[in-house]
Amino acid sequence: MMTKPRKNLHKLMASVIGLSLLAACSGGNAGTNNAPSNEGGATDPKSTVSKEGMPIVPEPITMTLMAPDVGHAKWEDMASLKEMEKLTNIKLTFQNAPSESFPTKKNLVFASGTYPDIFYGADLTAAEQVTYGDQKVLLPLEDLIDNYAPNLKKILDENPNIRKNITTPDGHIFALPFINSTAVLYRNPMWYNGAFLKALNIKELPKTTEEFYTYLKRVKTEDPNKNGKADEIPLASVKLTDLRMYFMGFWGMYNEVYYADKAGKVHYSPQEEAYKGYLTFMNKLWAEDLLDHDTFSQTDEQKAAKVKNNQVAVFDAFHPYMPFQVEPNRDNPLMTLLKSEVAESPVYGKHPGQSSYGQFAISKTNPNPEAAMRWADYMYSPEGALLFDLGPEGTLWKYTDKATKTKEFLPVPEGKKRDEIRGTLTPNYGIVPPGINLAETKKGLENDFDLFFKEELNTKIVPFAKPPMPNVFLTPEEQTEITALLSDLNPYVEQMEAKFVTGQEPLSGWDKYVAQLKKMGSERIAEIYQVAYDRWNSTK
Amino acid sequence: MQSTPYPTQNASQPESETQLPKTTGRQWRRIARNWELYVFIAPAFFYFLIFAYGPMYGIQIAFRNYVPTLGFLGSKWVGFDHFTRFFDSYYFWDLIWNTLSISFYELAIGFPIPIILALAFNEIKTGFFKKLVQTVTYAPHFISVVVMAGMIITFLSPSNGILIHMLEWVGINPPDFLTDPRWFKTMYVLSGVWQGAGWGTIIYLAALSGVDPGLHEAAIIDGASRFQRLRHINIPTIIPTMTILLILNVGSMLNIGFEKVLLLQNPLNMESSNIIATFVYKSGLVDAQYSFSTAVGLFNSVVNCVLLITINQIVRRTSQNSLW
To answer: Which of residues 300-319 of B touch A (CB under 8 A)?
Structure first.
């Protein structure tokens, strides 16, 4: 009794499915045919966009902006963006995603076919710029820069290296960088807990890996936080990602995946003999409980709690007072780079001068690319850099002498931190925005800590630093191969690093590990990047 | 039932073909006569059509080098390239083994425990105690996966986890549950039991409430012990429910709680926590290799389907219950 009506239903379902498939097919066709027709806007300059001066457009226009967000305030309410809207006549609607999930969101947006008008602080990797530029999702910007970006054009003309770094192999510029010629760091450096140094009466910071080991050993056994408990954690980390690059420099490697050495030879770090030195040392720290045994299972919050609790001797932070949640001070010195058994050590992978990533891009569906370019160009002017770094005058700061651009900070309301307020005024907080870092922005505002920070970097890091690799672009074919190779290699390397460090895999397994890497195609990484590096070197 | 106007089983092939249009007409008339039933089923039907069958159109990107701007049909056809890459991958056997072993482990532990628990609940007579125990066992079900993973990590932290301290207190030297690959699967399965077992009893309790009290009375008069009544009355009553749930569990076996595995994963336990679903997520959404991850996902679905059909066959042969 049951079977027959069911058979009916099956037939009905089958036919409907068939129909729906047909419908879906034709739908897909329509979609792909429509796509290219949107491109016209790029080359057709709108006469209403003024080439200089504000406002950019006489009649208000609206654009959608996609950006990562650290959640301090709604972007709609930020004083800098409101001021910018008043100035330019361009109203923005925001598509924000939390910064930790932004890379995923970005991929989804690129795959969805519906793009925001502009990408802001979006960290478009070289791979993404090439891929989506090649697919014509991102507009080529070089003509727009020449015609609608006087500030940026001036910077690029004065610094041909920057132009070289943002130009893809086929001569296009798809994304704009954050230019920071004074930048040294692009990862958090490591710091010593000053209270521990004082308690153990350390006059001179460790200079070699051996001395460093001895210091950590003393932290472990001599109770430098004086609470009578052996709760000190000499070195804290989350999955080693926070200290890896800093520490690999002690064995002469500039970066964790690939880098060019001083002679211009490209290396794939995880199969270098030097990398084995790094693993051996970290394994020793682990075995003697000097490296936190929660390293591979804890979260960032758990680690931060331990630092704040005054349990940790060496930790990573952008500014060393931040994890302690106190006002800026000179108490905690920067970790000196350590010399190891490797002759050419230590080294440091320095920030390449402008952010290696694309922080601003215009999508092909933007109806007003000229206006968008002028909007972005403002970030590269002194006024724009100031507005987006510190907010409009009268919120956080005021001029003491407008002619020399000298400023002072306004008093901060009780119970608030200046940096937190800044996070509610401008979007350029916790993300890397497009724009430029100019000395005059901070004129008169530098405090004692800023001077200390600069001094620490200049004496301890700068003499050993070199960018690991210029911003080389790969061709789409090279890029596809690299993506496939690295998506296979990276998890294996990460897994084996953890095993070697914790001793789950003895270091005698090194040769087997290198053989497996080679089997997975690791040698192609250095080869491909060598070609790209040589190509970069030969362009003018 | 006798009046169903279908060609009989022994009708010859050509005959049934010529009768086809006529049959279709009669079917439509039948549908029209019972239209209310079809209205009832329509929402579910369209749900599956739109959200389960419709998107299958996109599976073709597993056989292409998918480029979003070129669309599904415009992207280059590469056949089985992505499948070959997956089969040759260093991770292939690890992925298969982890996915299958976690699934079977979960099924072996997670399937019987709710049954035992339900039978036990059914024996509790006092109202307050019964309600208390049930509420306590149901409660973890309502904790979201993210919070659950956070709790597991905090409780099992080698330096200050509460469970670790408890083990140390009773004199056991605790293993590194979070980072030792040998413990990952047990940790995953047992925390799943803790979270899901109580909730899983509900359907069995419903089945048990259908037992005719007369049967128990008769058994008591015959001098049957509690355990004998459990064995000969309660268990046979819930066997049909058990078989159906078993088949359903097997059907979704390879769709292991992906979020939980991902949240508990770390480089040290990767060799036993890397499963197909997390691999698809990483290669597809993080690395943006859409075609490759679709191929891997499709492979997962095919294996799932084969498993479901196999179990269904086995169950049909051994008992009278089956999905189809």
So the answer is: none
Predicted local distance difference test score (pLDDT) of residue A360? 92
Interface test with A, best of B48, B92, B164, B179 (most A CBs within 10 A): B179
Residues A409 and A313 in one domain: no
**B57-70, pLDDT tens digit by residue?**
888 989 998 887 77
Question: Is A512 within a domain?
Answer: yes
In contact, A291 and A235? CB cutoff 8 Å: yes
Same domain, A314 and A299: yes
Rounded Cα–Cα distance for residues A343 and A336 (Å): 17
Asked whether residue A345 falls in the same domain as residue A359, the answer is no
3-state SS assignment for residue A185: coil
Which pLDDT band, with edges at 50, 70 and 90, does A167 fall under?
confident
Domains detected in chain B: 1-27 (no CATH), 34-79 (no CATH), 90-318 (1.10.3720.10)
H helix intervals, A325-381: 369-377
CATH of the domain at A517: 3.40.190.10
- For the whole model, what pTM was predicted? 0.75
Indicate the pLDDT class of residue A503, thresholds 50, 70 and 90.
very high
pLDDT higher than 50, residue B11: no
What pLDDT was estimated at residue A476?
A: 80
Tell me whether residue A44 is in a domain.
Answer: no
Q: Are A315 and A190 in contact (CB under 8 A)?
A: yes
C-alpha B236: how far from chain center: 23
User: Is the CB of B44 inside 8 Å of chain A's CB atoms?
Assistant: no
Instruction: Please tell me the predicted confidence (pLDDT) of residue A354.
Output: 58
Quote the percentage of chain A above a pLDDT of 70: 90
State the smallest CA–CA distance between residue B209 and chain A in angstroms. Answer: 27
**Of A402, A423, A442, which closes a domain?**
A442
Per-residue confidence at A252, pLDDT binned at 50, 70, 90?
Answer: very high
* Average pLDDT value over all residues in chain A: 84
Residues in contact with A121: Cβ distance below 8 Å, sequence separation at least 6, in sequence order: A67, A68, A359, A360, A427, A428, A431, A432, A433, A434
Residues from chain B that touch A494, judged by Cβ atoms under 8 A, are: 267, 270
Instruction: Give the least confident one: A326-340, A414-428, B33-47.
Output: A414-428
Rg (CA), chain B: 26
Inspect the interface and report whether the beta carbons of A113 and B69 lie closer than 8 Å. Answer: yes
Q: What is the pLDDT of residue A361?
A: 93
In a domain, A33, yes or no: no
Q: How far apart are CA A513 and CA A494, in angstroms?
A: 12
Residue A476 and residue A332 share a domain = yes
- Amino acid A91: pLDDT: 92
**A53 falls within a domain:** no
Grouping H, G, I as helix, E, B as strand and the rest as coil, residue B294 is helix
A25: closest CA of chain B, how far (Å): 8
Q: Are residues A421 and A390 in the same domain?
A: yes
A242, A224: one domain: yes
**DSSP run (H or E) holding B150:** helix B145-155
Mean pLDDT of B39-43: 93
ipTM of the complex: 0.72
Residues of A in contact with B4 (CB under 8 A): 4
Angstrom distance (rounded) from CA A186 to CA A169 = 25
- The structure tokens listed for B239 are 């066997």
Alpha helix ranges (H) inside A167-311:
194-199, 209-221, 244-248, 273-287, 300-308
Cα three-residue angle B196-B202-B208, rounded to 5 degrees: 140
- Identify whether residues A341 and A220 lie together within a single domain: yes
CB contact under 8 A, B153 and A298: yes
Number of domains composing chain A: 2
For residue B312, give the amino acid letter.
N
Domain that holds residue A480: 190-349+469-538
> Are A486 and A411 found together in one domain?
no
Euclidean distance between CA atoms A425 and A73, whole angstroms: 8
Question: What is the structure's pLDDT at A353?
Answer: 64
